[in-house]
Structure formats: C-alpha cells, structure tokens
Amino acid sequence: MRTTLTPEQIQSYRENGFIILDGFLTLEELENWRVCTEEAIQLRLSEGTLHNQYRTDDFYAQVFLQALKLADVHPGMRKIMTDPVLGKMIAELAGVDGIRIWHDQALFKPPFGNATGWHLDNPYWSFSSPDSLSIWVALDDATLENGCLYYLPGTHKNPTYVNANIGANQRDLFKAYPEWEKIASVATPCKAGSAVVHNGLVAHGAGANMTNGPRRAMTCAYMPDGATFNGVRNILPEEYFNSLKVGDLLNDDIVNPLIYKS
Ligand SMILES: O=C(O)CCC(=O)C(=O)O
Ligand SMILES: [Fe+2]
Prior knowledge:
Helix content is 23%, strand content 22%.
C-alpha cells in the first residue's frame, strides 16, 4: 500500500474534497483485495444478507451490487480494513487524530449497469461531520466507459446535510443545490489498484457502465473518533440504535472499530 502523502496531496484533498491515489495497491495486494472481496460477497450471498444485488428490475438494483460490512464476515477482509497503516493515511487526510470504520462496502456496477446519481455520503450516516470520508479502491480499471466516479470539486466546503436519493433521476441533488449546476464536474478514471478518497460531503456520482464487463470497487467509509449520534439508524444494529440518544458518543469498538489514534 502506498500510504505516504505529500503536503500537496493533502492540500488538494482539502481544497477539492477528493484525491486520486494512483498505484495505491501493489499487484499482489490488489489480487488479495479482489479475492477477499469476492469471497466475502459469496458469504453474504449464502447468508442472504447481501444489501442490494442486481436481481430485480428496479433502477437502484441495477446501479450496483452493494455488499456491506464484509470485514464482519471475512477474516482476510477484516485484516485489510483494520490495518492501522491505512487508518493513519485516512486520519492524515481528514486532519483528525483518530479514525473509526463507519462501514466497508463492495460496489460492483454490473455490465451495462445504470449511472450512480449525484449525492453526498455523510447524510446517510448516523453522525454528521465535515471530516467524514471514504476510500474507493478500483478492483478493475475504472474508465469513462464503465462508470468511473465524478466529483463537483469544492462542494464539501460549506457543510450541509440535505441529500438526494441515488435514484433514476441523476439531477435530483440539484433541486437542493441549484447553484452547484454551474460547477464543472471532474472525472476520476483510474487503474485497478488505484484509489480515490473523498470527503463525505462532496457531491459525487458515477457514469453508467456502457461496457460488457463489471466495474468492481471495494470501499470503506470512515468516522472521526469523537463523532456523536445524530438520530439516523443506517447500519447501526437495532439494539444499539435503541440505546442511543442524539448527542451520544459513537464509540462502540465492535460496531465502529477504532483503527488509528495518534
Ligand atoms: O461506485 C459508485 O458508483 C458510487 C460510489 C460512491 O458513491 C461512494 O463510494 O461513496
Ligand atoms: Fe457515495
């Protein structure tokens, strides 16, 4: 893993809300990420706990196969996700002293799959923070043709938590933020084994997959240590969710492992 960041990269992340990390994984690591991701998805499938798969005809089901919290079911994936070296890089980008996993998630856009509508990430989650972020690791080359990510640079700068669903209407987010329609989008095609890290409040989406191959990605979302509950359930287990009051610290080390603290 190439986790050393230059001051220019950190500055660019803070300014734009995203950064491409070319050559993030070695070929050997990429193969391990692919194997662990595929095996863990099979475990989720056999348990019947896959979040979203492309079996139905509705629009969202054809955006991507979505497999959540693979580190909970696969030891190899747990090792990948809880690596403090990765945690340190994420904390450095976020500018925080401690980082917890919010959730990992595989996002496989199927051959000829739908576009991912413009959205923000953090409003889906159970805490609100200008420092939340995700890493998105390409398991296949992500190209303009197969649905690489696109960003609206700088849209994370005035933290706001109104969101749009990832639905059939790509433009829904602009109902809430009409001023963002003027911003030029930036595509982030990258090779398999490269990664993109983005702020949880930067507007982003992905193109349709116009090719006959899948566009596989393994991602992880992160919460700064010290973040508090905002009332949203998202991935919180029911019993834990019911025990929380708005404003409580989200510091359960099983649900949200602390992977780095300086
Ligand atoms: O993979 C995609 O199409 C969308 C990814 C995304 O929205 C995310 O990682 O936050
Ligand atoms: Fe997203």
